[in-house]
Amino acid sequence: MKHRSPLITLAAVAVAFAIMFIVNMLSGPPGNSSTGIAGPAAAPQRAAAVHTTGPDSVSKETS
Amino acid sequence: MTSIPVPAPEAAPAEPSGTRIAPVIVALAIGSAVSIALGVYGRLHTPTGYAVNIAGFSTGAAAKAALASVVMALAIVQAVTAMGLYGRIPLRGAWVGTVHRWSGRVAVLISVPVAVHCLYALGFQAFDGRVIAHSLFGCFLYGAFVFKMLILTRDDSPGWALPLAGGLVLSGLTALWTTAVLYFFFV
To answer: Beta-carbon neighbour count of residue B160 at 10 Å?
Structure first.
């Protein structure tokens, strides 16, 4: 006899993993809603990030 | 004239009839593959350094420590109810199985945000002994969990397989909690 409920649990965990990964990929980097280093200083960091993120911004600044 | 005693054919197998080792090996192989896949992903993925936070916590580390502690408490409930189910302690009644199953389901679902944060924001790291142990135990835990869930689907696995799987999950979680949460709170 085979029991299906453990497979349903496995599937639910896999779906939860997928949802969490998708949410993380869709959410942008640090605001107050991010974990890790961002805390009260998140707003100034975001403002600074405008000048430092990506090669495009670097090329605009240097050109 | 003496007759030579011939052992009865049914005396040879030591295991109870109807049990099979092959499904256990297949489940172990699948669980190992899951552990390796998580480790490879964690190593190849470039850590973002951030992940979605859970409302109400000051930092990601605090959220992870709290959630992991809830998971650890539920794992202790799992161990106690499992001992009741196996008759090792005097816990009886249908509620024991129900509590065992639901505490496990809730525990693993609560662990998902913690694991995703580790994998997505931090990745598999190896810059000191505690961190490499934590990374390895994290990968091991979900492989052991998959192994246990696959064992649970079969009635024909040997009697030792399910306690072994449960013990692996509990050991992995304890090691994981010790190398992170205990460190977060006390070091």
So the answer is: 12
- The DSSP output letter for B154 is B
Chain A residues lying within 8 Å of B109, measured CB to CB? 12-13, 16
User: What is the least distance, in Å, from the CA of A49 to any CA of chain B?
Assistant: 14
Q: How many domains does chain B have?
A: 1
Which value does ipTM take for this structure?
0.82
pLDDT digits (tens, 9 = 90+) for A2-59: 677 899 999 999 999 999 989 888 886 665 444 444 433 333 444 334 343 334 433 3
DSSP alpha helices (H): ranges in chain B?
A: 22-44, 60-85, 94-117, 129-152, 161-186
Domain that residue B78 falls in: 21-186
pLDDT digits (tens, 9 = 90+) for B107-162: 999 999 999 999 998 999 888 999 999 999 999 999 999 999 999 999 889 999 99
Tokens of B51: 């992940």
Question: Closest residue of B to A27, CA-based?
Answer: B52
**Least CA distance to B48: which residue of chain A?**
A29
Closest-CA distance, A54 to chain B, in angstroms, reads 14
